[in-house]
Amino acid sequence: MAKPDKLIPKQAMPKLSMEERRKTLKEVALGFSEDLALVEASRCLQCAKPKCVEGCPVNIDIPAFIKLIQERKFEEAIEKIKERNALPAMCGRVCPQENLCQKSCVLGIKGEPVAIGALERFAADYELKKEPITPTGSKCNPTGVKVAVVGSGPFGLTAAADLAKQGFDVTIFEALHEPGGVLIYGIPEFRLPKRVVKAEVEYVKSLGVKIQTDVIIGKTYTLDELFQMGYKAVFIGTGAGAPIFLGIPGENLSGIYSANEFLTRVNLMKAYLFPKYATPVKVGRKVAVIGGGNVAFDSARTALRLGAEKVALVYRRTEAEMPARREEVENAKEEGVEFMCLVNPVRFIGDEAGWVKEMECLRMELGEPDESGRRRPIPIKGSEFRIPVDTVIVAIGTRVNPLIQKTAPLLKTDKHGHLVVDDYGRTSMKFVYAGGDITSGTATVIEAMKAGKRTVQAFCEDLQKSE
Amino acid sequence: MNDIVSAKELAPNIKQFEILAPPVATKVRPGHFVVLQTEEEGERIPLTVVDSNPEKGTVTLVFLEIGASTKKLGKLKQGNRILHFVGPLGNPSEIEKFGQVVCVGGGIGAAAIYPIVKALKAAGNRVISIIGARNKDLLIYEEELRKVSDELYVTTDDGSKGRHGFVSDVLKELLEKGIPIDRVIAVGPAVMMKVISNLTKPFRVKTIVSLNPIMVDATGMCGCCRVYVSGETKFACVDGPEFDGHQVDFDNLLARLRTYVEEEKLSHQMLEKGEG
Ligand SMILES: Cc1cc2nc3c(=O)[nH]c(=O)nc-3n(C[C@H](O)[C@H](O)[C@H](O)COP(=O)(O)OP(=O)(O)OC[C@H]3O[C@@H](n4cnc5c(N)ncnc54)[C@H](O)[C@@H]3O)c2cc1C
Ligand SMILES: Cc1cc2nc3c(=O)[nH]c(=O)nc-3n(C[C@H](O)[C@H](O)[C@H](O)COP(=O)(O)OP(=O)(O)OC[C@H]3O[C@@H](n4cnc5c(N)ncnc54)[C@H](O)[C@@H]3O)c2cc1C
Ligand code: SF4
Ligand code: FES
Fold first, then answer.
1. Quick check: B69 and A278 CB within 8 A?
2. Any chain A CB within 8 A of the CB of B46?
3. Is there a contact between A261 and B216 if contact means CB atoms under 8 Å apart?
4. Phi, psi of B153 (to 5 degrees)
5. Domain, as residue range, for A438
């Protein structure tokens, strides 16, 4: 085994060839080989007071699992991670580690932090390669108490896994026909292969969790009906899935998609395999994507892979303010996505058949910082210009979908429609808990998972008190 | 669950399925729709619920085999199971005692309007129904509607049965005669709903239309179904599907419905060649 050595540089993860990245939806980041993982693991100092663990929202025992990798005990390494995180293969791929564990790693003060995310992914992938998945969570003291989880995104899956580990009889209700939430319909194959999502969903099922797809709470059953059906508690993780449009003239011309529609067609409905799969998607030669977050980057890179000649990412601030994961910004650049920063669309112009053909934009400049701390973009008068487009993808954010709240008037919401919860995810209704994007607006996978864990804690306490 | 309890051909390329879906059957109200998918590779198909039987736990759907997905659906038989079935979706129709209501069903819309007519009648309205089809073989739900309507007019484009002409011709006559009409409800092809809305506008008769834009999730998550109503963007699946016909931008709806004509043709050809 290699000795800890901070002179070894951070190991870079191999990537798919550019040729394949332009033409296929195959995963771009290929993962560490065993050798690379061992070298990278050897860089960890095994700090006595590990800062990285504090930086991790679900407090994975990071030095412990890295030590197990150093010792080539890969199976034990993944067990260690799963004590705290039921979805490690996904988190290893999509968490913004540069702002979390890796940001806190002491090695980062003078040099490069340990590639914790890549090591997490390595351990998780090692396990996924072996079939079949075996449950690791011991089903301690089955309680026979039935609980319902609404939504199967990272919040729902995590809450369900922890509830099952506590011995509850858990059923997840999911509106769509596939479980996974944004992980299955939003984040593309080349960043998070659907087989990984499916495998982790299988893991959650292996803990005893039942998943009923095609059930919309608020439509098929109301919250009250769930309690009448004998569920003792309900955990709501319905996300913030309703797309926001720009509210400018021409936005309903054909060829203009919300990022949610575009990505859902491609990921969930597999439009990239049309006509074998029946749902189509249209990607023209010139594509404009509006936005600067993960969703915009996922859309832009997907459009490129589906044959667009030119993909421009139109963002009203500058590259420095883009909220997307750094790695994906770099990947997009490498792949040829063009950045049009300090630009904001003001209207779309269509042809006789109602198809979008041009986008009129204004140039912007940065003013004083706003509430978000980022400098506010201000339009420059008279700077209008037009660019030709065949397809436009709008990725400027999402709102909460009010389907449940509409039929549950006792559930308190704030002015944005987010469910109001205490620090542990308790809503205004007894034994109803919530977390993830439905309470915070679009955030991250790991924050949703953290909320999932907390609500289960809160429920266990509330249940004890009530008995 | 999701078993086809009975399957019937109502007319060439028009089928009726009764499907076992107890949670939907107990909840569904006139104007609701469902989304179904017949295979992993398939599309999510929105269809209006035409009738339901809460005791048996079944709902009735009537659909026109218009393209590849509905043709594949039509190949299923009694005893087969629908892979995915979710609902009830959308907002139910506004049912109140309005007075005299004219319900217009064009083509497949004759079946879709049936639950609305039935509910309006039960709520104490006097209901005049007008249904139409290209020819007499394609007329559906005539007998069912006759039972629940106070008056029923039938039209065919070729004159092979009932009045020679369109449903809008009958409505026009009624409007011009000046009989009291408190509300018009129109369900059918987008063009027909456009014509009806244009017709009633000068008479200031409130006109409700049930829009059928292309949908994906039908839960408010994608915005594919967006339509302009009073110049504002609405999602037909969660804000509708029924809207005030006088406020709808039908030209935008019609253009958006043509988004995938080439792809639809390709899918259809594949199916015909047996490759789909
Ligand atoms: C394209 C894209 C890329 C992203 N990239 C990243 C990334 O790289 N890293 C990162 O950390 N985060 C990323 N995010 C954000 C992250 O995915 C979300 O913060 C996270 O998924 C929120 O989890 P959730 O469980 O709260 O909700 P969701 O994942 O949204 O899941 C909610 C689920 O509930 C279901 N549902 C909704 N209403 C109902 C109902 N009434 N009844 C039953 N079911 C219902 C929905 O169908 C859905 O499956 C990305 C988001 C998008 C859209
Ligand atoms: C709320 C609602 C209720 C409906 N109720 C009924 C009904 O009761 N009976 C019935 O026969 N039809 C109904 N439809 C229309 C039906 O969903 C479409 O005819 C069907 O999806 C077409 O699929 P296809 O592959 O067979 O045909 P395609 O060849 O794909 O398309 C034929 C036409 O249908 C439209 N269409 C295509 N895909 C969709 C889609 N995903 N959603 C909506 N329209 C689409 C297209 O504009 C096209 O012009 C309804 C649609 C909506 C939105
Ligand atoms: S802070 Fe960095 S070096 Fe220290 S234990 Fe965590 S990963 Fe290892
Ligand atoms: S169909 Fe997706 S929002 Fe209406």
1. yes
2. no
3. yes
4. -110, 140
5. 146-241+400-466
Residue A12 within any structural domain of the chain? no
CA B46 – ligand 2 centroid, Å: 6
Asked whether residue A253 falls in the same domain as residue A234, the answer is no
- Nearest residue of chain B to residue A353 (CA atoms): B255
Dihedral sign for Cα atoms in the order A52, A57, A63, A69 = negative
Instruction: Identify whether residues A31 and A118 lie together within a single domain.
Output: yes
A351 Cα to chain B: minimum distance (Å): 11
> Hunting for tokens 């996904």 — which residue is that?
A90
Same domain for A253 and A219? no
Same domain assignment for residues A298 and A161: no
Contact B89, A219 (CB under 8 A): yes
> Pocket of ligand 4, candidates B37, B47, B216: which has the most ligand atoms within 8 Å of its Cβ, to mutate?
B216
User: Which amino acids bring their CB within 6 angstroms of ligand 4?
Assistant: B 215-218, 220-225, 235, 237
Residues of chain B with CATH 2.40.30.10: 4-89
Q: 3-class SS at A245?
A: coil
CATH homologous superfamily of B4-89 equals: Translation factors (2.40.30.10)
Q: What CATH number is associated with residue A190?
A: 3.50.50.60
CB of B29 less than 8 A from some CB of A: no
* Distances from the Cα of A40 to the Cα of A47, A73, A76, A87, B225, angstroms: 16, 15, 18, 22, 49
- Pairing mode, strands A233-236 and A432-434: parallel
3-state secondary structure of B266: helix
Total domains, chain A: 3
Sort out which chain B residues have CB atoms less than 8 A from A275's CB and list them.
Answer: 263, 266-267, 270, 276
Give a yes or no: residue A13 inside a domain.
no
Would you give per-residue pLDDT tens digits along chain A (467 residues)?
444 555 788 888 889 988 889 888 999 999 999 999 999 999 999 999 999 999 999 999 999 999 999 999 999 999 999 999 999 999 999 998 988 999 999 999 888 999 999 999 999 999 888 765 555 544 445 678 999 999 999 999 999 999 999 999 999 999 999 999 999 999 999 999 999 999 999 999 999 999 999 999 999 999 999 999 999 999 999 999 899 999 999 999 999 999 999 999 999 999 999 999 999 999 999 999 999 999 999 999 999 999 999 999 999 999 988 888 888 899 999 999 999 999 999 999 999 999 999 999 999 999 888 887 888 899 999 999 999 999 999 999 999 888 888 888 889 999 888 999 999 999 999 999 999 999 988 889 999 999 999 999 999 999 888 87
Q: Which atom of ligand 3 is nearest to the CA of A63?
A: 5
Nearest to A275 among B222, B227, B270 (CB): B270
Say whether both A72 and A195 belong to one domain.
no
Same domain, A83 and A218: no
Residues A436, A453: Cα–Cα separation, whole Å: 11
* Residue nearest atom 3 of ligand 4, based on CA coordinates: B220
Asked whether A286 and A388 are in contact (CB, 8 A), the reply is yes
Same domain, A152 and A224: yes
Which ligand 3 atom lies nearest to the CA of residue A106? 1
Q: Where in chain B is the domain with CATH 3.40.50.80?
A: 100-257
CA distance B224 to chain A (A): 6
B100-257, which class in CATH? alpha beta
Alpha carbon A456 to its chain centroid, in Å, reads: 21
